[in-house]
Design goal:
Length: 261
């Protein structure tokens, strides 16, 4: 595992940290690859029920891709396409992670880091955070999948505003437009995020996973095949040991102990 991408486990919650604080956690090509790898691993870990993504320290979630690499790693069409494939693989791994994911944002969240944040299910931010996609200042067209997520979060007009202007959005505006779901004092962010995911971890994993898949399939457009997948998830949950445990716990007036089966 790279020292630039760290994974810490606290019970049922894992934290993935972008660990380059001297560079505002700018994401190198090697880090994009590592982010995809560790996310796949956490998705398969039955002990983990929620994942936090964050930057080291409080200066930045991440300042975006490491532009100092671009002269070598994006020097022509072929290398730019290879680079884009690696970033998209990281975004896709987070989007497709079967566990709930939260971007915990201190400070700057810019460029490619916005793609990571948008790939997460939720975004919790500290007061004073800043957001932006400066692709228009680099003659880069932002990836279509990430643009689609931006549109889903803030609507087409705000998405065009952010992309056309390449401006920096402050914390209050990001909350008002729906980009972030929580805005809390910086000293409270770590505790609030961990407490939230621990609460999710106490819920029935089959239900949480089914909800995540249902929302994602709805956004893709419900056809017969996708409706069938949703019905299968609901059937699995209703036939599970956790369903029986939830019912017993309710009748016995005690907290349920869900096992994910």
């Amino acid at each position: 595992m790279s020292d630039d991408v760290l994974v810490d486990r606290d019970g049922s919650v894992a934290t993935v940290t972008f660990n380059r604080p001297r560079m505002r956690n700018a994401i190198s090509l090697a880090m994009w690859t590592e982010i995809a790898r560790v996310t796949h691993d956490l998705g398969k870990d039955d002990e983990i029920r929620g994942v936090i993504y964050r930057g080291a320290g409080r200066q930045a979630f991440a300042s975006g891709a490491d532009i100092s690499e671009f002269e070598e790693q994006r020097k022509d069409t072929a290398s730019a396409q290879r680079y884009g494939a690696q970033t998209e693989a990281a975004y896709a791994a987070i989007r497709q992670c079967p566990k709930p994911t939260v971007a915990m944002i201190f400070g700057y969240c810019m460029g490619g880091a916005m793609g990571i944040a948008m790939a997460c299910d939720l975004r919790f931010a500290a007061e004073g955070s800043r957001f932006g996609i400066p692709a228009a200042k680099l003659s880069i067209v932002y990836p279509s999948s990430a643009v689609g997520q931006l549109v889903d979060l803030v609507g087409p007009a705000y998405a065009k505003d952010i992309l056309y202007s390449a401006r920096t959005v402050d914390d209050r505006e990001a909350l008002a437009m729906g980009f972030i779901q929580r805005l809390v004092p910086a000293d409270d962010l770590e505790g609030a995020t961990l407490e939230y995911l621990r609460g999710i971890a106490a819920n029935a994993p089959l239900s949480v996973h089914g909800s995540k898949v249902t929302v994602d399939l709805y956004l893709e457009g419900l056809d017969d095949e996708r409706r069938g997948r949703i019905r299968a998830l609901a059937r699995t949950a209703s036939e599970s040991q956790d369903y029986k445990e939830g019912t017993r716990a309710f009748l016995e007036k005690r907290p349920p102990r869900f096992q994910g089966r």
